[in-house]
Specification:
The chain is mostly helical and 178 residues long. Helix content is 82%, strand content 0%. It has three helices and no strands.
């Protein structure tokens, strides 16, 4: 490396030599520093491309990791928001159903107080009107013919029929006796 001056040489005679040696030593040192700088520059140029490519690769890897972490966080936040929205909508739907039930009950009570018939009442009346229409139609078809067939509730039992027949005979016999 840098050459050092030797101590202990004569002062006057050696002062001239010493300053020459000093100048030469400084010149050699400067030359060595210059050459070391050139060598470092040359090495940096040679390895600069490789170092640059290595840094680019590291940057790409870091970007991918960062992007995947960010996407994971975004997905997590999105699922949390979806869950919260679902919870809120189900609670709101429950409250709307409850409110709707209360409203329907109050309207029903008010209509009942006013005497407005319910849908069940109207359905029952419609069924009764239909039954009466069938009966009237049957009576019109059967006018002048035998009376319409009796339903099971209207048919007399065998005993009742026999009793009615016996009663008619007795009535006929009384009329004949008179």
């Amino acid at each position: 490396m840098v050459k050092k001056l030797q101590k202990g040489q004569g002062k006057d005679a050696d002062a001239g030599k010493s300053s020459e040696k000093l100048a030469e030593t400084i010149k050699d040192s400067a030359q060595q520093i210059w050459l070391a700088g050139l060598g470092a520059f040359s090495k940096a140029q040679e390895e600069g491309g490789r170092v640059f490519e290595a840094l680019v690769k590291e940057g790409v890897g870091l970007q991918r990791k960062t992007q995947s972490v960010a996407e994971g966080k975004l997905s997590e936040a999105s699922s949390r928001m979806t869950s919260m929205a679902t919870d809120l909508s189900s609670k709101a739907a429950g409250q709307w159903d409850k409110l709707e039930g209360i409203f329907e009950e109050r309207v029903s009570r008010a209509l009942k107080k006013l005497g407005v018939p319910t849908s069940r009442d109207i359905d029952a009346l419609a069924a009764r009107v239909e039954e009466l229409n069938r009966t009237v139609a049957a009576l019109r078809r059967g006018a002048g013919r035998t009376p319409p067939a009796k339903t099971g509730a209207e048919r007399p039992t065998a005993r009742a029929a026999k009793a009615a027949k016996t009663a008619r005979k007795r009535t006929a016999a009384r009329k004949a006796a008179e």
